[in-house]
Amino acid sequence: MKKILIVSHALELGGAERSLIGLLDAIDKEKYKVDLFLLRHEGELLPFVPEGVNLLPEMPAYTVLARQMVQTLKEGHVLLTAARMYGKIKASKYIKRHCHIESGVPLEYSHKYTYRLMPEIQSGEEYDLAISFLTPHYIVTHKVHAKKKIAWIHTDYSRVQIDKKSELEMWSMYNNIISISDDVTKTFLKTFPTLSNKIIKIENIIPEKLIVSQSKEFVPIEEMPGDSIKILSIGRYCTAKNFDNVPQICKYLIKHGMNVRWYLIGFGPDENLIKEKIKEEHMEKNVIMLGKKSNPYPYICRCDLYVQPSRYEGKCVSVKEAQMLGKPVVITDYVTAKSQLEDGVDGKIVPLDNKECAKMLAELLENVEEIQMYKKNCCKSDFSNIIEVQKLYKIMV
Asked: Is residue 272 pLDDT above 80, yes or no?
């Protein structure tokens, strides 16, 4: 029996984390021994690790990477905390020199300058395949013994400022790099053209049985009453998801004569910014922040339209989940949008401009036939992508 190790951060609510559950679910446990190592045993999705997957014990040193440094110092992790602080200072200097706001450098440096102090994972064990599921990818490179090692890309590299030289060294250590879509591959290779021979596309695998089962657990009638058109968006409250523009888009929709409420499920650093924008546009009764939900699927079933208004995406798992549950979906025209859905067939792509976005949303909401067509086409399609797991098996041959 071949042995697979998958390493990731935690199992908090997020698209990448849900696709990890899908991957774990899809692997044939009778043919492959699967170990899962999480830096932290945290997150609402932790109970959904599939049966047959061996969750390895948490190792205190790895938990240092994502907790308050004051706390980790109190616990005696002096060297690790000092290494994190050094990485933070270096990242700050790099960002100042390159004048970018959205940056992946702090996270990358936090791992780059600490991995040498970390213990090995499953010391003495050699795996047939080791998977680093979320960047940064230093841990699997240096702290795992495996015949082959692969790392996953989940984001649009044209939109995130990085230290190219540093990341090139990191990615180059892997046998293969897994991309979740053609557009993600394209933006990645614009940054790292010399890595083209390492790329393999494996689309997100969605845990369909889990999603359908959870979608029937309850009906959120009180949170999403039926006296208006119900629009729903799910994602982190962060720059990428563009929820800070939802209040203005919603205001334009109302000017178009739409009786709508727009619900936002998620959490993250932009929570206060979104609240400010809601007040600024006087949309307190129309844009409702539902916060973090461990089970978002009943809310998807309850909505009339699912909208992903993102500035950029890798490949949004929530969109596929909404389609899987038979909902009409609208996404904005971010760089990788055309790899997300087929415009005019199983969903609609609208401009990122707030006024134009609202105009096209209003036109769609008035077109019952178009909405029904999207629902029908979604119900006929298989969005689970479970066949993608076969590509993983081939890597081990």
From this structure: yes
Q: What gap in Å lies between CA 322 and CA 326, rounded to an integer?
A: 7
- Other CB atoms closer than 10 Å to residue 241's CB: what's the count? 26
Looking at the predicted structure, is the pLDDT value of residue 102 above 80?
no
Maximal CA-CA distance, the chain: 66
Supply the Cα-derived Rg of the chain in whole angstroms: 21
Torsion angle of C-alpha atoms 75, 78, 84, 87, degrees rounded to 10: 170
Structure tokens at 78: 């002096």
Give the pairing of strands 287-291 and 348-350: unpaired
345-354 pLDDT, tens digit per residue, is 999 999 999 9
**How far is the C-alpha of 25 from the C-alpha of 204, rounded, in Å?**
12
The answer to whether 195 and 177 have CB atoms below 8 angstroms apart is yes
Structure tokens at 68: 């308050």
- 146 forms bridges with which residues in the sheet? 127
Q: Are residues 376 and 384 in contact, defined by beta-carbon separation less than 8 angstroms?
A: no
